[in-house]
Amino acid sequence: MSTILVVDDEEGIREVLSAILQDENYNVRIAGDGIEGLAIMESESVDLVLLDVWLPNMGGVDVLKKIKEDSPEIPVIIISGHGSIDIAVKAVKLGAFDFLEKPLSLERVTTAVKNALELEKLRRENRALRSTIERRDELLGESEALQRIRGVIEQAGNTGSRILITGENGTGKELVARAIHRRSDRANHPFVEVNCAAIPDTLIESELFGHEKGAFTHAVSRRRGKFEMADGGTIFLDEVADMSLSAQAKVLRVIQEMRFERVGGEESIEVDVRVIAATNRDIQSEIAAGNFREDLYFRLNVIPIDVPPLRERPEDLAPLSNHFLDEFDPTDGERPKRISEEGMVLLRTYEWPGNVRELKNFIERITIMSDTDVVGPDTIREHLGEVRTAPESGELAEYDGMGLGEARDRFERKYIVQKLEENGYNISRAAQALGVYPSNLHGKIKKFGIEMHK
Residue 174 falls within a domain, yes or no? Predict the structure, then answer.
């Protein structure tokens, strides 16, 4: 039952409103002036306020300001006499939901109260949904690499600079893009995602820039494109390297001029859009092969962010696994599953070719298929497959006495040196052989102090 506070210095008005609202099954509290009304709000939970403009001790407009400062989510409906309409209109501009003119109409009162409460309910649901989405989109992990990415997001989020996110499929490039948008001054404006790899070449220009009626077959009406929809906000060009050269040229022009024409149209449309792009490809190789425009690359790559694969950040496995276990828990917290220490060790030995997306699917699978509350190695092998064959005798002897991090670094350094030697210390070819980006390989060379031979 919603609680409504009626603040009016006329006893007759208070009695009438109280009777009307109680008949509608609302809980009603009454106050004879603004100071008393505010005191009630401090001690009790109130869902809506009916507030007279003319009040003794403290005027209705001042009371409204105080309510909006302390409890901006509570809707306020102003009650005004004939001579105070201008003040009531001013109150609406200050945040009041509506105003009722005396003499009060029974139907008008009940309709205004119902509408105000329903609107606030929708706002609460929207806030809760937005909070849920933000938690779902949160970048989870404790690795040094993820900490660096968070630092870049904090620094670059509110700058408006264009950002190019690179990394394998399933590493969370879209989550990075959404985190950047949320930390920008565009957060309350649209975040529009475009999967460039999923749109045929013949349609991508229409998808990005829209089209006019009759521009091509089946163009039966005008349609706004993604850039137009993202006006004031952010457009996320996912898998940008999959765009045709023709579409790349148009995107380059939009980035330079922030204006474009719809397909089949002549009207120039101006937009204010922040561009974030992402790709799982080696852009330098795509440029060398003539598949990607170098000038577009330089426009997009103002701030680069490389998201490393999950196999390079095993520290993130535990927090990610626990998050997905909570998300897919069929018991809603009554019998939560957990992964044993032995099971987590086994997960860290797996290569995770599908990265975080594969981990999420695996956790969903075991929450459905596993009957045990504690997920151990046997369950993991059953639903993930044999993780790694046993090493030959003596194969790991050189790593005896080392911690996991030290052993991993030693192996990684040896393997990188081997691939560099095999490829004549050519960075691009060695990176391709290793399955990483050249920028990533440069970072490893610096980290391990590898001497480059010509």
Answer: yes
Q: Is 219 helix (H, G, I), strand (E, B) or coil?
A: coil
Establish how many alpha carbons lie within 13 A of residue 400's alpha carbon, considering only the half-sphere containing its beta carbon.
5
Report the alpha-carbon distance of residue 324 to residue 136 in Å, rounded: 10
If one counts every other C-beta atom within 10 angstroms of the C-beta of residue 261, the result is: 14
Are 272 and 173 part of one and the same domain? yes
Domains in the chain, number? 4
Task: Specify if 393 maps to a domain.
Answer: no
**What is the tens place of the pLDDT at every residue in 23-54?**
999 999 999 999 999 999 999 999 999 999 88
H helix or E strand, kind and range, residue 5: strand 3-7
What is the CATH classification number for the domain harbouring 30? 3.40.50.2300
The number of beta carbons lying within 10 Å of the beta carbon of residue 82 is 8
Q: Let me know whether 175 and 245 are in one domain.
A: yes
Token code pair at residue 215: 């521009």
CB 64 within 8 A of CB 39: no
Is 359:320 a contact under the CB 8 Å cutoff? yes
The Cα 267–Cα 264 span in angstroms is 10
Query: What CATH number does residue 359 fall under?
Result: 1.10.8.60
What mean pLDDT, rounded, does the chain reach? 87
Cα torsion 139, 142, 148, 150: sign: positive
Rg (CA), the chain: 30
CA-CA distances (angstroms) from residue 140 to 135, 152, 179?
A: 10, 15, 12
d(CA 201, CA 291): 14
Domain span at residue 346 reads 311-384
